[in-house]
Amino acid sequence: MQYLELIKNLSFVQWAFYFLSILSLFGALGTILSKNPIHSVVYLILTFFTLSGIYLLLNAQFLAAVNIIVYAGAIMVLFLFVLMFLNLKKESNELSQNSMLISAAIAGGLLGLILIVAIKKAETIRVNYNDFDAKTGMIETLGKVLFNNYMLPFELVSVLFLVAMSGAVLLAKREKGDSHF
Amino acid sequence: MDTVLIVKAIIVVAIFAISMLMALYETYAERVIAAFIQDRVGPDRAGPFGILQPLADGGKLFFKEDFIPAKADKWLFILGPAVAMSTALLSSAVIPFGDTIIVAGQKIDVQGMDVNIGILWIFGIVSLGVYGILIGGWASNNKYSLYGAIRAASQTISYELAMGISLLAIILMTGSLSVKSIVLGQHGIDWNIFYQPMGFLLFLTCSLAECNRTPFDLPESENELVAGYHTEYGSMKMGLYLFSEYVNMFISSAVLASLYLGGFNYPGMDFVYNKLVGSFGEVTGHNLATAIGTLTLFLKIFFFIFLFMWIRWTLPRFRYDQLMNVAWKWMMPVAIVNLIITAAAELSGKPLLYNWVGLAIFGAIYFGLFPIFKKKTVSAN
Predict the structure, then answer these.
(1) How far is A65 from chain B (nearest CA, A)?
(2) Which residues cross the membrane (chain A) (predicted)?
(3) Which residues of chain B have a CB within 8 Å of the CB of A72?
(4) CATH fold of A1-87, please?
(5) Which of B220, B210, B208 is nearest to B308 (CA)?
(6) Would you call A65 and B146 a contact, using CB atoms and an 8 Å cutoff?
């Protein structure tokens, strides 16, 4: 009965949060549990979508939009694109080996332990509803912070991107003697 | 508050219904325009002038056998058209179809939602639209469908770059990502197309490519790939794919009209507004002025839809390597040059003059100096 009361008293935002959380967990589990890699990618897209929804609940609209454009819109399309070229009909049998299972269980357990400790130790800053600036996550604020306080890191990251891009072009460039098709 | 919510709900449903209705009659317009260009009669049997033709087509599609190939991935096969259709419909939410209307003393936007990332929303949804084609093409378990899907993916990603960069120039000029602010910044005849002629052409080309319209309909080119990604589809599933293309066309026409042709702005709108408010009173006059603005927007949308169809029935299809060359070697560099010119013009304080000066200088360099270098490199090889 107590739980029923709790569910009845949930606000709209809480309903949205729980719905999105359950959906994102479902997507994440589907990503690692499905045997077909294409299905994994589709589940992962669902996860990104729900994460964007959670960003929206936090009033971070720009982050939500960029998450959809960059991850769901570009990177996952490339993932899907590459996976479609590969004929991954054969199942990998790595999980049938005992040593693999044991090491995976240990690594996963340790990671889980660290996460639990980190969450326990993390300070939870309660935000005061009355004097909290609702525009914190908006793009205007973000732009001002990014181009005032973090100007140098921002520029350095863009240089890094440029280097990565030219590296990719260089790798893909046809060398002398390569076959022309 | 309640009346505001109800009016808002009515507006949202109306926008949704209008997108569907427009898509429905775009199929009819496509046939009529194709017939006109090819000197045929076109559909004239169903109703007067054949205006019931879309309903007849829809009925035919619904009653056809809904077939799923034996070796297809059943759920993804169903998901494909659903994703294509829903992403096509989502992006109309942020397009301002008019200024505000006054109901019960409150101003209400004639728009699904006015978010401050409106243009990014459209961009994100457009980039998601390719999943419908990609998933459907792969799930069909057919080589031609897969080729169509892969072509669609690479084409969309390539043209999104030039589209995004030409969009950046607009954002640079307006200083806002909200579509409403962009439209409000083009008051009267102060339209962005006069500042951004090159950006407009780039954006128009990219929207053709994103809609898979004819010079860029490589994903479904019938002489190479049977019917591309929807080879295995039949019945209303194929109907949804075809329909989503028309919805996309309507939305991109609306986006083009809002970004470059001033949306609901028209020359002499202040004069009309003052006249209407003067003769009908504050509330009715304001609402009537908004209605005229909405009508202007729809005229612009009709113009773009006609342009899209005209292009489709006039131009031949690109070859695949040409398509990629146009995107990467031609449109993207030009878009970057356009962005630089716009940035310099904005800094100069006289954007209109210096945009054209910058474009003229670029044209002189491209057509005057560039051929000289080109000849040299050719002779060196």
Answers:
(1) 6
(2) 12-33, 40-58, 64-88, 100-119, 150-172
(3) 124, 127-128
(4) Four Helix Bundle (Hemerythrin (Met), subunit A) (1.20.120)
(5) B208
(6) no
Nearest to A38 among B138, B156, B177 (CB): B138
Residue B270 has pLDDT above 60, yes or no: yes
pLDDT tier for residue A160 given thresholds of 50, 70 and 90: very high
Neighbours of A157 (CB within 10 A): 11
- Asked if A44 is an interface residue toward chain B (Cβ–Cβ < 8 A), one would say no
Is the pLDDT score of B1 beyond 60? Answer: no
Alpha-carbon torsion (A130, A131, A132, A134), positive or negative: positive
Q: Rounded mean pLDDT of B193-207?
A: 87
Cβ neighbours around B220 below 10 Å, total: 24
Domain ranges of chain B: 2-318
Alpha-carbon gap: B277 to the closest alpha carbon of chain A (Å)? 35
Contact B246, B26 (CB under 8 A): yes
Tell me the Ramachandran region of residue A177: left when phi exceeds 0, alpha when psi lies from -120 to 50, beta otherwise. left
pLDDT at A45 over 70: yes
For residue A181, pLDDT beyond 60: no
How many other CB atoms are there within 10 angstroms of residue A84's CB atom? Answer: 20
Per-residue pLDDT reduced to its tens digit, B44-75:
887 788 788 888 888 888 888 887 888 777 88
Give me the residue from A65, A81, A85 closest to B121, CB to CB.
A65
- pLDDT of B4 > 80? The answer is no
Angle between helices B143-174 and B235-260 (to 10 degrees): 20
User: For B135, which of A42, A66, A68 is closest by C-beta distance?
Assistant: A42
The three-state secondary structure class of B46 is coil
* A144 residue type, one letter: K
Structure ipTM: 0.77
pLDDT at A111: 94
Token pair in block for residue B359: 């474009």
C-alpha span between B368 and B262 (Å, rounded) = 34
Q: pLDDT, tens digit, for every residue of A132-143?
A: 777 777 788 888
Mean pLDDT of chain A: 82
Predicted pLDDT of residue B34:
86
- Residue in A42, A61, A69 nearest the CB of B115: A61
Q: A68, A71, A89: which to substitute to probe chain B, counting the most B Cβ within 10 Å? A: A68
H or E segment at B107?
strand B106-110
How much is the pLDDT for B381? 42
β-partners of residue B109 are B100
Task: Please state, in angstroms and rounded to a whole number, the distance separating the CA atoms of residues B206 and B198.
Answer: 12
Nearest CA distance, A68 vs chain B (angstrom) = 6
Domain residue extents for chain A: 1-87, 135-174
As a whole number, mean pLDDT of residues A149-155 equals: 90
Q: Give Cβ neighbours of residue B141 (< 8 Å, ≥ 6 apart).
A: B69, B71, B72, B73, B232
